[in-house]
Amino acid sequence: xKLLGSPLSPFVRKxxxxxxxxxxxxxxxxxxxxxxxxxxxxxxxxxxxxxxLLPDGDNPDFAINDSSAIxxxxxxxxxxxxxxxEAALEHxxxxxxxxxxxxxxxxxxxxxxxRPIFFNIxxxxxxxxxxxxxxFGVLAEKLLPYLQDQLGEAQYLAGEAFSxxxxxxxxxxxxxxxxxxxxxxxxxxxxxAHYERCIARPSVAQFIExxxxxxxxxxxxxxxxxx
Length: 227
Hints:
This protein is mainly alpha-helical. It folds into two domains: 2-77, 3-Layer(aba) Sandwich (Glutaredoxin); 88-217, Up-down Bundle (Glutathione S-transferase Yfyf (Class Pi), Chain A, domain 2), CATH 1.20.1050.10.
């Protein structure tokens, strides 16, 4: 089994955390990314998106694309520990939160906050902190309050156990933190506590460390913007 996609992609990270929780072994190819697609990747995913999973070494022409599809495959491949709630209501809730994080939250973090800082620095330009702060302001208007309301006083987003909903949210917030934006405790205390609880899990903590090592190796220095 081989997983392909840049380690800084929150969607690749989501699939890798699910695999880590389930102790699923795979070969990893970090090369495919929006900054460069290796030769032949279009045959795996003609839409050039990551992650991509080649689940069967004997059938290299078959790929599972999209993080949600890959995580769903992992759940069936290795059912325990379960990362999707069994009860219908909680299961549906987990899928909804995952969708919100993969679409609305990902778009606003990626384009509005992450790219203006990280992509600028990576290409030798000054960080566009003005655009990033404006992007964070958009997040703080509706999406982050909604997600905090969904969490309420609970430990996790969909039932009493860590699930795909918590992973989907955490992987997006990891990219916020990579470019210097932590959730303000005075406004998003519950959501920040949830984030800190999730990144303390070994399955997540390893990628926090790897991401930091990667950006340091690239020579990228990010100043704290909101803490």
